[in-house]
Amino acid sequence: MISMIALVIDDSRVARMKLRKTLRIEGFEVFEAGNGREGLTVLEQIEMPEIALVDWNMPEMNGLDFVKAVRSQEKYREMLLMMVTSETEPRQMVRALCAGANEYLMKPYTDEILTDKLKLLGVLGAA
Q: How many C-beta atoms surround the C-beta of residue 123 within 10 A?
C-alpha cells in the first residue's frame, strides 16, 4: 500500500515528534523541517505531500511566509496546508487562512482533534 505523505515544519523537535507519531499511526510517511526555508527545500526533494503541517513562529522563515511561498507556486496549489500553532488570536487565524492555509489547529491540541481536522480536510476517511 502506498502511504500518504505529510510534511511537518516546526522549530520544536518535540512538536515535530508529537505530530509525526500521530501521523504515522494514521498511515502517513512523514518528512520534517525545522523552519519554513528548510520546509521549501524538503518540499522540492520529496513526492507531493497530501498535507503540510506548519508552525507559525520559527526562525529564518515563519509559517505564514512558508504558506505564502507555497501558494505562489502553481505546482503546489492543490497541496493542503494546516497551521499548527500557539497563535490563538482570531486575527492571526484570518491572516493564515487568507494567505492560503486550509485549516488552523491551535496548540495545545489532542491527537483526536488533529485527526478530526485531517478528516475535515478529506485527508483521512470520514468519522
A: 21
**29: which residues sit within 8 A by CB, 6+ positions away?**
3, 4, 5, 6
Residue 92: band (very low, low, confident or very high) from pLDDT cuts 50, 70, 90: very high
Q: What's the pTM?
A: 0.95
Does 41 have pLDDT greater than 70?
A: yes
For residue 35, the domain's CATH number is 3.40.50.2300
20 with 29: CB under 8 angstroms?
no
8 is a domain residue: yes
Number of domains composing the chain: 1
Name the average pLDDT for the chain.
94
Q: Give the H/E segment covering residue 71.
A: helix 63-71
| DSSP characters over 73-124 | SGGGTT-EEEEEES---HHHHHHHHHHT-SEEEESS--HHHHHHHHHHTTSS
